[in-house]
Amino acid sequence: MSHRRHRKTLSPFLHKRLVSAPLGAIVLGLRGVPAALVFAGLAAAPAGYAAGVADVAASTPASAQKTYAVPAGSLGGALAEFASQAGVTVQLDSRLVDGMRSQGIKGSFTPREGFSTLLSGTGLEIVESSPGIFLVRPAPARSSADVVVPDASTLPAVKVSANAGKDGADSLPVGYVATHSSSALKSDASILETPVSVSVVTRDQMTQQNAQTLNAAVRYTSGVTPETRGGVATRYDLLTVRGFDADTYWNGLKLLGNGQYAVPQMDTYLMDRIEVLKGPVSVLYGQAAAGGVLDQESKMPTRVPLHELGVEFGNYGHKQATFDFSGPLDADSRYLYRLTGIARAEDGQVNTTRNERIAIAPSFTWRPDDKTSLTLMALYQRDPRSTSYGSVPPQGSSLPSPFGPLPSDFYDGDAGFERFSRTQESVGYKFERKLDPNWTVRSNGRYFHLGQDYASVYGSGLEADNRTLDRYSIGSTDQLNTIALDNQIEGKFSTGSLKHTVLAGFDYQHVAGTSALGYGSAPALDILAPDYYQAIPDFARTVTQIRNNQYGLYAQDQMRMGHVVLTLGAREDWSNTSTRDVTDNTLIKQSARAFTKRAGLSYVFDSGIAPYASYTESFSPQIGTDAGGKPFDPERARQYEIGVKFQPANYDALLTLALFDVKRKNLLTPDGNNPNFQSQVGESRSRGVEIEAKANLTDSLNLTASYTYIDAKYLKDNSGLEGKHLASVPANQASAWAYYTQHRGPFAGLSAGAGVRYTGQTYSYDNDYKLSSFVLVDATLRYDLGHIAPRLKGSEIYVNAQNLLNKRYVASCYYTTWCAFGYGRQVFAGANYRW
């Protein structure tokens, strides 16, 4: 029996290897929400328009003129952006501007002039009720025909999104377009001025597409190949970015695993946005995969009261209940809370399997003053069961079989032996303090515990009769404790005509885990007459303890002079790892040190076009030694990227184009002279093009579209892969999604969305054959019941279908004997109630 056929099911780690001015306060006069509720968020003004950080408390005199640039978008958003740049407060009843659009403004104005220009032709006026506080109200009417103020009973329901900025403050609904990112530069940075590719999936997009996993959330994101293990591996977030593995983060801190099967996974219902930072990112994040970072940002406490309950049902026996409560605990909004939870149970797509989850995430924010914020966060997530982590053989899935195609719910395991149980618990904090208008300190920290028990039987290839599936067994019991800390100081100052935004920080990651892992034999399975309850022999386990510490110091300077933005960054990391085999009483200690850097140059035209070029690096420590006993050096990756971003003045949109070249070095591959050892001569490369567009074209229509071309190959390898394409990475991908809401007329309250996802041909692991391309269709309908009767205000019903046409397809063949079917049709119907 060959070594390759006896090889265990790949762990997620091994599988991946293979394949700032404050926002002006807005007062919402919502139905049922007092008009005196003020919420203010801290978010940087579009870079290049303002230098330094203004304090909310320092109001701007009504007679002072300065230059403003407010992009087109919703009128409410334009008023908020202008107030942000002016450092003043604007108050309004949001129903007055619901559905209104603004063309934005550019030029020099006093705050009063700017507000008046934005409100021109709307029937609304601005008055300064007190120094630095402006009120929007209906303009006095000379006759009944001059101004028509809608009756509150006939107004469309006001939709408030609790989207969180970097500090968890409230913000207006953003639709699909995010103009700032907290992950790309570890500060609230303008995406337009950031010289790297970053895509943001907003809460609105996730809700409208009903994305229930991280994979589902990024299906329409350029450069991302989601669900590389198809519909079987729901317990892990297996995907690639630009052809390579990417790391998952939560609130800016890495979700640390043990390199085998103990891998954290967060539920997307708990998240407000997902940022996809593409390419090597070690300069800010330390040891990192070459694909980049997927940072999941939690729902944070809000100043506006929020109450939501939801229920959902679907095929595969899907049942789900959710709740989300938030708001102030005192009249001054110094104490805020949020409590979010979800419970889900459903059958897995794979026969005999099931998914179950319960999660609750409480958080609390204390704001003793306008300059200080401390948020405490906790999580309890229990996954008692999860669908199979197995596979299907190529014959009958991607290759012909004399017995015809396999069913898409084919199960290669044993129902009496299969188990998966995972518990995740976490506590953490986010702290920010403005030392003065130009200097800010931040500190983020988290403790995370994961306990897991996993056992499975998996297929290892069909015998010559094409119906007998050889199988093996595996079991792993894990306990994992991790700590992640990140401390930063950010300052803004000028040296002559050069304006600087500097960031310096120290971060620390600690992993302490124990794993009892073993492999054994299992009876073969007749795929034509499967017996899923056979006697599985017990097997010995090896107990391993791993301890890892990483320390990093980093510095970054974003320099602006006129239209030019230069970003430079550098970092030094120290890592040490000890691996103890408790069973054999052996200990291996390794240490590594790495210096990484990044440089990027952007030119931001007044038209909103910003061409850029950048270079960035990453490193990732590797455990083990070569044939001479020398510890392996860290894997290294570097990326060259050029592109252009466009944020038009007349539309709320962001369009990006990027060309990239990523190269990984020091990859482990069999030693040509000592086959029982590995050497570090392996190299791989990915190059390609990404195009992405996100737009809120009107108050009714949201769009997102993308196209990706990737050419990913092994450049050097001793196992026969040299010159071959990376498995599971399509050369071409494209997607488009549109969502329309009818605000007026007889169909007011009705929303409809539809999307198409195209995935081109991919290669099998050894490139012996290609997998067919496929096209998937998604769709949704939603209806606000408040338009039927006032007593139903806040109630919503919806239906969502993913892979609407139930396309049968093979997502990947990620190893010689392992393939994976993609998700079949999933249909969800549910109801939400908000008050």
Automatic annotation (TrEMBL):
It comes from the Bacteria. This is TonB-dependent siderophore receptor. One of its GO terms (biological process) is siderophore transport. It is a multi-pass membrane protein. Belongs to the TonB-dependent receptor family. Residues 88-139 form the Secretin/TonB short N-terminal domain. The keyword Membrane applies. PROSITE patterns: TONB_DEPENDENT_REC_3 (PS52016). It is found in: Cell outer membrane. InterPro entries: Beta-barrel_TonB, Beta-barrel_TonB_sf, Plug_dom, Plug_dom_sf, Secretin/TonB_short_N, TonB-dep_rcpt-like, TonB_sidphr_rcpt. GO terms for molecular function: siderophore uptake transmembrane transporter activity; signaling receptor activity. Residues 385-405 are annotated as: Disordered. Keywords: Cell outer membrane, Ion transport, Iron, Iron transport, Membrane, Receptor, Signal, TonB box, Transmembrane, Transmembrane beta strand, Transport. SUPFAM superfamilies: Porins (SSF56935).
